[in-house]
Write a structure and sequence with these properties.
The protein has one domain: Metal Binding Protein, Guanine Nucleotide Exchange Factor, Chain A (Beta Complex), CATH 2.170.150.20. It starts with 8 loop residues before the first helix and ends with a strand. By secondary structure, the chain is mostly beta strands. The protein contains 2 helices and 9 strands; from the N terminus they run ααβββββββββ. The strands form 2 sheets. Strands 3-4-8-7-6-5 form a 6-stranded antiparallel beta sheet, with no helix packed on it.
C-alpha cells in the first residue's frame, strides 16, 4: 500500500529510538504494564510517534487492565487493518494509515465500550498531545 509518509528503514532508524523502531517498523510489542500511557488519564490527542498523524482522542481511552493503553475507537480513517495470524492466534493488527507503522491490535471483546472494541496500542507507537 502507498502511504502518505514513505521513508526507508535507514531514515526511520535515524528518526526513531531502537525500541520505537522495533515496535513501529517491525511490529514488535512492548512489555505489558511498562508503557508510558498505560495508566494516563490526561486529556488530549494521541498521534503516531513516527509521522505525527492524529489517531485517537483521550475521550475514547479506557482502563482495560490488559497492560497497554486501550481505546474503543480511532479518529475516522486513521487506522489500517491487517489480518494477523502470527503467534498461533487470529488477530487484527492496526497500523497508522498515514505511514504504515504498527500500533497494536484491535479485539472485539466488549469491555462495555460503546463500540464493543478494544484497540490495544503500544505506548511506544503513540505520543500524547495534552490539551491546554
Amino acid at each position: 500500500m502507498g502511504y502518505q509518509v514513505n521513508k526507508s528503514d535507514e531514515e526511520w532508524r535515524e528518526q526513531l529510538t531502537p525500541e520505537e523502531f522495533q515496535v513501529l517498523r517491525q511490529a514488535g510489542t512492548e512489555r505489558a504494564f511498562t508503557g508510558e500511557y498505560n495508566d494516563t488519564d490526561t486529556a488530549g490527542t494521541y498521534s503516531c510517534r513516527a509521522c505525527s498523524a492524529e489517531l485517537f482522542v483521550s475521550e475514547t481511552k479506557f482502563h482495560s487492565g490488559c497492560g497497554w493503553p486501550s481505546f474503543y475507537q480511532p479518529i475516522t480513517d486513521t487506522i489500517e487493518y491487517i489480518e494477523d495470524n502470527s503467534a498461533g492466534m487470529k488477530r487484527v493488527e492496526v497500523r497508522c494509515a498515514s505511514c504504515g507503522s504498527h500500533l497494536g491490535h484491535v479485539f472485539p471483546d466488549g469491555y462495555g465500550t460503546p463500540t464493543g472494541d478494544r484497540y490495544c496500542i503500544n505506548s511506544l507507537s503513540i505520543k500524547l498531545h495534552a490539551q491546554d
